[in-house]
Design brief:
With 955 residues, the chain is of the alpha+beta class. It is 49% helix and 14% strand. It is globular.
Length: 955
């Protein structure tokens, strides 16, 4: 019989092993083991490349995220450049002089006055200085800049843009304001703009910029870039004339080009009521601080800690998956090295030497994968930053590479690679040298202890999850203190329990595979071969399906928990208007002092809101009017005029809250003490977002009420009552709380029972609607409160920006408009599809690695199968069952463990989270369909042509 021999590697191995025996020293053994490990890495190029790639991918992700996140954190120098340019400081008046005014060193907006014994302080009486330069040394040069917003004439009408008045183009502002093109203004009739403003105005340098309301026209002489603005933002830079500052207003800051302010100098300015942002103080902040400002000093670690936490959490998950998959690859590689390692053992290498050889292979590949991952991560971060940068200096403060963090990530990669080789190294150390030299292969058999302990851990995990959920539910209704450990420790158990369950499945993996092989042996020949191969090579199979299980666990956990929370959010969602509608509220204006809109101003606000809605392209406009609770503007009941009346629909007593049991309530935008809205019959469907029958509309016109909150209805009617005069303050009942004992409830001025038409409408501002004719009959005086309009299509970002600008422009001294585009609660699809896609990719990757290793290791068996008459179809079927077993085991194990936390949190929520909200059909299709798809793909990929001559030579 002839055969093809493997490459003779035993000679070199024997020489190195002899060196081990000859030298005998600990350092010599490590050096020789490292040499043998490097040689084995080079000889097994494909498996080494696979392991290095498995390590490199998560390392690249961690590196990219670390650089990306670090680039969003500004160092003091970065913040100073964007805030001051090359200036030394800025100052502005903010406090009353001589009253002990203070500020935080690096955050000048953090200010106050000396606190009393109770820790509180009051704003002292006195004027704030108008010009802070009087507090500076005589002759100090300052540059005054005012930042605000200005209304400019655009090609589409009038737009609101950021505006600065003053010499923002001064060269000493370089870094904060930089010239892009053109020249600096030299007169009060010239201005600069951002490049985006030129495009928005459809003008060029040399053309005019016109402010709205006749505030002035300026020649554009150049473009200027503001560090704090993105490239797409519009802004104008105007001359710093007193007249223009008076028109535009805004925040004033005096910049100091030369005077460097120390902390002592800043404190001296504070005594004069002036705050300062100083370059010298920011670069070297004081350490001795008053109690009120200790929390203001930016702790660099506090900024870095969230990044470290995210990288650590992601790294631990990635390490688990990589250790499992790379461990499977090492198991295959170690078995292929058994003969070579046995030769080394036969000439003097002990078990420790053999273990070190395999461990150092993991260390070498971990270092190689870490280096590759670092390079890929840096490149990926650079690409992401370049593609997502919007031009603002404050979005990415620079390309910041956290070198200590990258060093830690590199060490982590080495640890992961070494950990992946631990189990194979332990297995190799126990190799029977004679059996390995003879080429015998004996299948692995599970021990008795591991399945028993695995089953115990599995049961404990399930029990911990359910027990902790019950404990949390009991704690939620108890009177335990808020800081009691019993309030948060059981919540951790709801998550830790499923992890223990997964560990139990992993510990019992070999036994489960053997039991599965006994069952599948009756299914058919292909299933028997595939299941026995999986059971016989548990060192390869169990880590593979454990990696898949970990990925599926996170996916199922996230989908189940998020679906319940999303459904709960949808059930309690407050709709400002029907979905896809525009709501424009009419609020008091800047000149208002009563908190209410004057009736005439409300009419003007309604007309303005209608104009804005029509300009947006909205249709089916509707106006909602309500009564104004103006009685609260009077201090005492006897001051309320007798003719002032307010009518309310009474909430039945059984729905009122007990103040001794419930200390708060959530209105969700509704006003229970003023629930009546007046709506035209033709506008009802636009306001409520429902369809009414002809009979319901006729009844509404005839005096019935449309009720969206059925709690107000008793025997098909609602009770409306009115109070007037001083009774509005101390005699009208609450629609929220049960009256306290001794509280006076006055008799109403009148009451009336009104027929109720209950509709199934979502939670929204209109709880009860009555027609204008009904309101007139009842003597209810209502003023416009908001305008609701239907949108034919979702608004684009530009249309939303334009709507916001139009609303701000339409607002005035007498009323303010506030717009909302109701999109409804977030949909599951927005996050479920990307999440399941990521999980699918990870499962596919893990399955590809596991099945590739299985095919690689089964080559001799596959050749034997072909030699004894196994058809290509049979060999394909074996691949199908291999895919189904590995992917199916992992998916089912991960799904079982992953669904436990949502069940636990549903139990502890006491009905707020419902298990019925979990998309069981989606999870079932995912957990069953994905293994089948993987198995089908593995069946479609033809097995490699068998090498019938690859046999162990017999001499």
């Amino acid at each position: 019989m002839t055969g093809v021999l493997e490459a003779p590697v035993e000679a070199s191995v024997r020489q190195e092993a002899s060196a081990l025996r000859a030298r005998g020293g600990g350092w010599s053994r490590w050096r020789v083991a490292a040499l043998l490990a490097r040689r084995q890495v080079r000889r097994t190029r494909l498996s080494s490349l696979l392991i290095a790639t498995l390590v490199a991918l998560p390392i690249a992700a961690m590196t990219a995220y670390g650089i990306f996140a670090a680039s969003t954190l500004g160092a003091p120098e970065d913040r100073l450049r964007a805030e001051l340019g090359e200036m030394q400081a800025w100052i502005t008046p903010a406090g009353v002089p001589g009253e002990g005014f203070w500020q935080a060193p690096t955050q000048p907006q953090w200010t106050g006055y000396p606190a009393g014994d109770d820790g509180s302080w009051e704003l002292p009486d006195g004027p704030i200085a108008d010009d802070p330069t009087d507090a500076l040394p005589a002759g100090t040069e300052t540059v005054l800049l005012t930042s605000a917003s200005a209304r400019i004439e655009t090609r589409d009408g009038v737009g609101l843009v950021a505006a600065w008045t003053g010499d923002a183009w001064d060269p000493r502002f370089s870094g904060a304001f930089d010239i892009v093109d053109g020249e600096r203004p030299t007169s009060a009739t010239e201005a600069m703009v951002t490049p985006a403003t030129l495009e928005r105005l459809d003008v060029g340098i040399g053309e005019d910029l016109t402010l709205a309301d006749g505030a002035g026209t300026f020649e554009i002489v150049g473009t200027l870039d503001a560090a704090i603005l993105p490239d797409a933002a519009s802004a104008v830079f105007l001359p710093g004339t007193a007249e223009l500052r008076g028109v535009i207003g805004g925040e004033r800051r005096w910049y100091l080009p030369a005077l460097a302010l120390s902390w002592e100098g800043v404190q001296a300015l504070n005594e004069d009521g002036v705050v300062a942002y100083s370059r010298a103080v920011v670069l070297d902040p004081p350490t001795a601080l008053r109690e009120e400002v200790r929390g203001s000093v930016l702790d660099q670690w506090a900024s870095v800690w969230p990044i470290v936490l995210v990288i650590s959490a992601g790294g631990l998950f990635a390490a688990y998956v990589v250790v499992m998959l790379a461990g499977a690859a090492f198991a295959v590689t170690a078995r292929r090295q058994q003969r070579s390692l046995a030769v080394a053992a036969s000439v003097g290498a002990n078990r420790g030497d053999l273990s070190r050889i395999v461990l150092l292979q993991g260390t070498t590949l971990g270092a190689l994968g870490g280096l590759i991952g670092l390079i890929l991560g840096v490149g990926t971060a650079a690409l992401v930053v370049a593609l997502t940068a919007d031009g603002s200096a404050t979005q990415y403060w620079g390309f910041h590479v956290p070198w200590p963090g990258l060093a830690a990530i590199f060490v982590f990669a080495i640890v992961v690679g070494t950990a992946a080789a631990l189990v194979p190294a332990r297995t190799v150390a126990r190799t029977d040298v004679l059996r390995a030299l003879s080429g015998a292969r004996r299948p692995q058999k599970p021990g008795v202890a591991r399945p028993v302990w695995g089953s115990i851990v599995l049961v404990v995990g399930v029990a911990v999850t359910i027990a902790c959920a019950v404990v949390v539910a009991a704690v939620n209704v108890s009177d335990l203190p808020g800081d009691s450990p019993l309030r948060y420790i059981p919540a951790f158990g709801i998550v830790v329990g499923p992890i223990l369950t997964q560990v139990g499945i992993l510990m019992s993996g070999g036994w489960l595979l053997w039991m599965t092989s006994r069952i599948l042996s009756r299914v058919g020949l292909a299933a028997r071969i595939a299941s026995r191969d999986a059971a016989s090579n548990a060192g390869r199979t169990v880590p593979a399906f454990a990696a898949i299980a970990a990925t599926v666990f996170i996916g199922v956990f996230a989908v189940g928990q998020s679906s319940m929370q999303t459904a709960q959010n949808a059930r309690t969602w407050y709709y400002a208007a029907p979905p896809g509608s525009l709501s424009i509220n009419i609020w008091p204006g800047a000149a208002g002092t009563t908190g209410l809109v004057d009736p005439d101003a409300a009419e003007d606000g309604r007309d303005a809101a209608v104009d804005v809605a029509e300009d947006t392209g909205a249709t089916d406009l509707a106006v909602v009017a309500r009564q104004q609770p103006s009685h609260w503007n009077y201090g005492l009941p006897e001051e309320v005029p007798d003719e002032l009346t307010l009518a309310i629909a009474l909430l039945p007593p059984q729905h009122l809250l007990d103040p001794e049991r419930d200390d708060s309530f959530t209105s969700n935008g509704q006003d229970p003490d003023n629930p009546l809205s007046v709506v035209e019959p033709a506008d009802l469907e636009t306001v409520l977002g429902i369809t009414l029958t002809a009979g319901q509309r006729d009844a509404y016109r005839d005096g019935a009420a449309i009720v969206a909150d059925e709690r107000f209805v008793t025997d098909g009617e609602i009770s409306i009552a009115a109070w007037s005069g001083g009774d509005l303050i101390d005699g009208m009942p609450s629609n929220v709380w049960i009256p306290s004992s001794g509280r006076r409830i006055a008799d109403p001025a009148w009451t009336e029972q009104v027929d109720a038409i209950v509709v199934d409408a979502p939670r929204q501002p209109t709880a009860i609607a009555i027609a204008p004719a009904t309101a007139v009959r009842l003597g209810i005086a209502a003023v416009p409160e908001r305008v609701i309009a239907s949108l034919e299509a979702p608004l684009s970002t530009q249309e939303r920006d334009r709507l916001q600008a139009q609303v701000e422009l339409a607002s005035g001294e007498d009323f303010t408009l506030a717009q909302t585009v109701e999109a409804g609660p977030p949909s599951d699809a927005t996050w479920m599809v990307p999440l399941l896609s990521v999980v699918t990719v990870l499962v596919l990757g893990a399955s590809a690695v596991a099945l590739g290793l299985a095919r690689f290791e089964r080559r001799p068996d596959d050749a034997t199968l072909a030699a004894v008459g196994g058809t290509p179809v049979l060999r394909r079927n074996v691949g199908f069952w291999q895919g189904l077993i590995i992917a199916g085991f992992g998916t089912i194990a991960g799904a079982i463990a992953g669904i436990l936390p949502p069940i636990g949190f549903a139990i502890q929520s006491q009905g707020a989270l419902l298990l019925a909200d979990i998309p069981w059909q989606v999870l079932g299709a995912f957990c069953l369909g994905l293994p089948l798809a993987i198995a089908l793909v593995n069946w479609l990929v033809p097995p490699r042509h068998p090498d019938l001559t690859r046999r162990t030579a017999i001499t």
